[in-house]
Design brief:
Blueprint: E1 3-7, E2 19-21, H1 26-40, E3 44-53, E4 61-69, E5 92-93, E6 99-103, E7 118-120, H2 123-133, E8 136-145, H3 151-172
Parallel strand pairs: 1-2, 1-3, 3-8, 4-6, 6-7
Antiparallel strand pairs: 3-7, 4-5, 4-8
Helix pairs in contact: 1-2
Length: 173
């Protein structure tokens, strides 16, 4: 297999039977991504899913190329927000073009301290596994909400549209 398509949950990829699902959150994404890489040995991993827009100008599907761990917070020990203590890798950049994504194990419905374009719950973990395993990584996110007080309602409504949008997008690429 040359391409491995990953999404967190099947609800994001209804009708797209070529996707594998990692489960929600960074730990599930890390474990299942690595497991699937070991089985299929892909040259390229493509992650797709929904994301909240911190950058309110974003709509539809965006490509993310810069990844941060938004909930790693040990600033009280003099590390930067997003920096894992004693880990040399605090950001993953696959291209200078594209948008930044802050991954964390929480659903964002209010302002966050990190300056990123979108927020999700898995992309950083998958990007890091791919970087460590020397596998090309691409990430596309469907903007499902604005990561605000209405995020849960908006996400639920737009989740139904996400898989159709990606199907149309991948056909056009």
């Amino acid at each position: 297999m040359t391409k491995l398509f990953l999404a967190a949950i099947k609800e994001e990829t209804v009708g797209l039977d070529y996707f594998y699902h990692t489960g929600v959150g960074k730990i599930n994404a890390t474990y299942n991504c690595l497991k699937l890489i070991n089985i299929y040995k892909p040259k390229l991993v493509i992650n797709y899913g929904t994301a909240g827009a911190i950058n309110s100008d974003l709509r539809g599907i965006v490509e993310c190329t810069k990844f941060y761990q938004r909930d790693m917070d040990v600033r009280n020990l003099n590390f930067e927000l997003g920096e894992t203590p004693y880990d040399k890798m605090k950001e993953i950049i696959t291209s200078d073009s594209g948008y930044s994504c802050g991954s964390g194990d929480s659903f964002v419905n209010k302002k966050i301290d990190m300056n990123v374009d979108v927020v999700d719950m898995e992309a950083y973990a998958i990007a890091k596994v791919c970087k460590l395993e020397k596998i090309e990584f691409k990430c596309f996110k469907y903007i499902s909400d604005n990561a605000d007080k209405n995020a849960d309602v908006d996400w639920n409504e737009n989740l139904k549209i996400a898989s159709k949008a990606f199907s149309n997008f991948i056909d056009s690429v």
